[in-house]
Design goal:
7 helices; alpha/beta; globular; six-stranded mixed β-sheet; about 230 residues
Length: about 230
């Protein structure tokens, strides 16, 4: 379970990115974070990954306050998470297989586990047959599938996605969302920051709207709503 308790984040330049935010996300939920650019969505995800830390308040992940952990503990925290970005962030000089393999190598997985696991997750995203190709040989949708496979390969309990369909056409975006929905159905918690009205409205998941660093709406089975301005 994830819980933010009265979390405020103020940067050194005086900008308050989060202002007394409290929210709770249960294991296995699928949550959309919506709001205009700069509203605080990305700050929430960065605090979860401990790329940033809260100025005040507490953030609990599976019962542990991650605002108090030391730098040496952060890599172990992140092993519980998979992250998917809008710009894919693939290694261009490595094949599809090698990109996914690398995520296991950096956590010290054995060669045996890598040989077993990488084809499994590539199959999950429909790319097993392109394992030997390089990112430059793939479409945008295929590149994002590789990024998803890389995020999944270490069996995270939490998947964080930051605008994962932002660079994709609508048809490809919906295909990617089907993959996310299948991942969620297997028990992985998903938190997705997005501006995609059509996707949010079509999927009827929990919607948390952020405005000026505050939670202004938290609705299960919600829609985007036009009063949230991109």
């Amino acid at each position: 379970m994830i819980e933010f308790v009265n979390v405020t984040k103020e940067f050194e330049n005086g900008v308050v990115a989060l202002n007394d935010v409290s929210l709770k996300i249960e294991n296995g939920e699928f949550v959309f974070l919506i709001g205009y650019s700069g509203a605080g969505k990305t700050t929430i995800t960065k605090i979860l990954m401990r790329e940033e830390n809260a100025t005040s308040g507490q953030v609990f992940l599976d019962g542990k306050d991650i605002t108090t952990i030391g730098d040496k503990e952060i890599p172990y925290l992140r092993r519980k998470m998979g992250v998917v970005f809008q710009d894919f962030r693939l290694l261009e000089d490595r094949t599809v297989y090698e990109n996914v393999e690398f995520a296991m190598q950096i956590v010290g997985a054995s060669r045996r586990d890598i040989r077993r696991r990488v084809p499994t997750v590539l199959n999950m995203v429909g790319l097993n047959y392109k394992a030997k190709m390089f990112p430059r040989q793939l479409s945008g949708g295929e590149r994002q599938r590789v990024a998803i496979a890389r995020a999944l390969v270490n069996n995270p309990t939490l998947l964080i996605a930051d605008e994962p369909t932002g660079n994709l056409n609508p048809e490809t975006a919906m295909e990617i969302m089907e993959i996310f929905e299948n991942i969620n159905a297997m028990g992985t918690t998903i938190i997705m920051a997005t501006h995609a009205h059509d996707i949010v409205d079509a999927m009827h998941k929990r919607v948390i709207a952020i405005e000026d660093g505050r939670v202004v709406r938290d609705e299960v089975g919600g829609e985007y709503h036009q009063y949230v301005t991109d």
